[in-house]
Task: structure prediction
Amino acid sequence: MSIDGAVWHPFFQHGTEPEPPRAISTEGAFIETDRGRLLDAVSSWWVVTHGHNHPRIAQAIRETAGNLDQVIFAGLTHAPAEELAEALVGMAPEGLSHVFYSDSGSTAVEVALKMALGYWRHEGDGRHRIAVIEDSYHGDTIGTMSVGERGVFNAAYDPLMFAVDRLPFPSGDGAETLRAFEEMAASGRMAALIVEPLILGAGGMRMYGADVLRGMREICDRHDVLMIVDEVMTGWGRTGRLWACDNAGIAPDIMCTSKGLTGGVIPLAATLASRRIFDAHRSTDRRRTFYHSSSYTANPIACAAALAQVRLWQESPMQEVLDRLGDWQAERLAKLAADPRFENPRRWGTVAAIDMKVPEGGYLSEAGPRLRAHAMDRGVLLRPLGNTCYVMPPYCVTEADLDLAWDVIASFDL
Ligand code: PLP
Result:
C-alpha cells in the first residue's frame, strides 16, 4: 500500500514526505524495516527506555493478557493497578501519595489541570489561572495545547484555546523568569504553574538549570500556587536521575508520567497527586467526585507492563547505566561542538542536543527534514526539531551505536 492509502500519519505532511519505511520488528535499540535496520536514536518519540521488546516487559504482557484483559476501573479494581500505584508512590518525589491512571501524556496533563482547578474550587477559592513557560509542549489535545506554546502547530485551533499566563523561558540563571513568576504568583489569582522540568522537549530541547526549578518551587510555596511537573518526557531517567525533579531535590504537588512508564511498549499514563489534592476531592458530597475517566483507564495489561518496567528500575543498576550513557553522550557532543557549523551544545543526563547553523532556523527549517532523510539513508532514525538535532537513545544503546548516530549528524552537508 502506498502512503496515499487509508492511513493519515501524525506530524507527517502527505504532500511532501516520501513514503516511509515499514517497521517489521523491533529489538533493543533497533527497528527492522522493509528497507533495512534503523538505529532508534529518538527512542521512538522518547518512549523506549530499556530497549525495544524487552523480554521482561513482553513476558508480563503475555502473562497478563492470558488471564485478565480490560475491565472497567470505576467501581472495580485489580492487582496490576494497585501494585503499580504502590510502587510509583514509593519511587516518586516525597509527598505524592495518589495515582490516577490515563492513557497518554496529553491525558495525564489534562488530568493534572483538572485536579488543580478542582482543588481550588473545592477549597472555595476562585483561583483559576495557569502559569506556563514560553516554548513549552504538553500535548496536542485542546487543553494541553492551551498551556503549550502557540504557533504553526496549533494556530488553526486558537479560537478553542483558553488563556494562560506566560513566563519567559529561563535563559541564563533564570532570574528574569523567577522575577516574573514571583510577581504573577503574588497576584493571588494563580491556581497552578505547569512546567516541563529542566528540558523543554518539543520546544527545541531547550534546557535550564535545577536551581531554576527549585526557585519555582519556592515561589509556589510562598504564594500557595500548585506546582504541576510534566515528567512525561523527562521521567524514567532521561535527565540522568529517575525524575528530573530529583536533580533539583524538589517535589511537585502534581506530577505527570507516561512514555517510559511501560518502557515504551504499550500506552499508559499516570498523574500523581499529593494528599492535599486528593483530600479536597474526597467527601460525602458527590459533587466533589473527580469526574474524569477514559474507557481504558488502568488497563491491566498496560499496568502489568509498567510494573515489569518498574521492577527493572528496582533490580538493575540503572544509575550506573544512566551515568555511563551520559558520559558517552557528553564526549560525542563535545566533539561536534568543535565543528563551527554547529552551535549551542547542551545536555541533561542522557539527552544531548545541538543546533545546526543555518540561515533559516525554527521548526520549519528545511535542515530538519533533510537531516532526517540523510540519517535514514544511513540506518539511523533521527527527528530533528527544525534546526535542532538531538540524540535520545534507549538505555541499551552501545557506544558503537551512538557513534553511528553522531557520525551521521557530523557527515550531514548543511
Ligand atoms: N508532555 C510532554 C513533556 C511531552 O513531551 C509530550 C509528548 O511528547 C506530551 C506531554 C504528550 O504526550 P502524548 O504524546 O503521549 O500525548
User: Anything to note?
Assistant: The first strand starts at residue 23 and ends at 27. The chain has a mean pLDDT of 97. Residues 104-106, 109, 137-139, 196, 201-202, 230, 232-233, 258 surround pyridoxal-5'-phosphate (CB under 6 Å). The chain has 13 helices and 16 strands.
